[in-house]
């Protein structure tokens, strides 16, 4: 099987490494990739948001399967273009990708499917902003305002704050730039990312993970695209996991089918485990980053065969997934000033170490690996338990040199020390 992966993050690096372990996969390509993926796959520089360009590359590479990593090409319909060209594609249609691309659509689907989620209102008129703010946040008995961009914002469109002025300023700046705003009630409780391979009404869950969205230790500072993740979740009772699959993901998948936009690809449920049970924070239409880096490190089943089966309507016939015992932890090394405008162009030393997955990296003409984005690397450690996996990841990340870079030191720590309960 020849597989073309679309994307350039550590998530795509992890996908490529897991695909390479599949004995049925004999050739890999990636577009646009990064300095790390170049060692795993043929690398092509195409505009991955342009369906025609991706189709042309898939034909040139004679791909049997195209796997689309990021949300932007999915929301723009690149998977539709690939399928229309007769090539199997892992990734939802443009219509189905609205589950991530339009939060108001996702809310509507959840309501119809009877799935618990935060109370919400859309604001598209600045004149309604203050009155709507009054119905949320501490003024309405919630600990904080949750202010989201209704569309795509790479994880950074969300502000959660108890400061009304900060909530108002974020909402006003989104409205000023023409983006509708979603105001939500705050969902309390530990968060879970559950990735499910879905084709129509067939749902195959992967191991649950938890990610860390704030930039600083102890969940301080602004939201980011994700600073680290671990899997599995020792504190999550198996019956809660089953309830999420049965009462959240399957009803949503069925609702998408009944609306005429069946989901085919990776459906990512982001949930809070509240005192009243699981409630959805968001759905995404693709693998999460950095959770994928941890989850795929424990996958023993052949990934290429799984994704091809989902892409060709054969998912229900697949054998149960096999996982390694133990735990995996992914820690993100970010560039100076991330999640603001990151410093780029610095030489990275130590990025060839085992467990290092590349994201914002490029190879300079003189051969040096340099930083080229905000999240630069993900370092994955595995071990018999979370403590061992954390030690493995932090051992490696401590040996990498990038001027001004930073990482969180507490990824998976509360779980390893038994401080999370539901
Ligand atoms: N881990 C957050 C995301 O992928 O959106």
Automatic annotation (TrEMBL):
Enzyme Commission number(s): 6.3.4.13
Requisite cofactors: Mn(2+); Mg(2+)
Keywords: ATP-binding, Ligase, Nucleotide-binding, Purine biosynthesis
Ranges in a coiled coil: none
Enzyme class: ligase
All residue ranges annotated as the ATP-grasp domain in the record: 107-312
GO biological process, alphabetically ordered: 'de novo' IMP biosynthetic process; purine nucleobase biosynthetic process
Reaction equation(s) it catalyzes: 5-phospho-beta-D-ribosylamine + glycine + ATP = N(1)-(5-phospho-beta-D-ribosyl)glycinamide + ADP + phosphate + H(+)
One matching Pfam family: GARS_C
Biochemical pathway: Purine metabolism; IMP biosynthesis via de novo pathway; N(1)-(5-phospho-D-ribosyl)glycinamide from 5-phospho-alpha-D-ribose 1-diphosphate: step 2/2
MF (Gene Ontology): ATP binding; metal ion binding; phosphoribosylamine-glycine ligase activity
Keyword Nucleotide-binding in record: yes
Family: Belongs to the GARS family.
Name the UniProt record assigns to this protein: Phosphoribosylamine--glycine ligase
Gene: purD
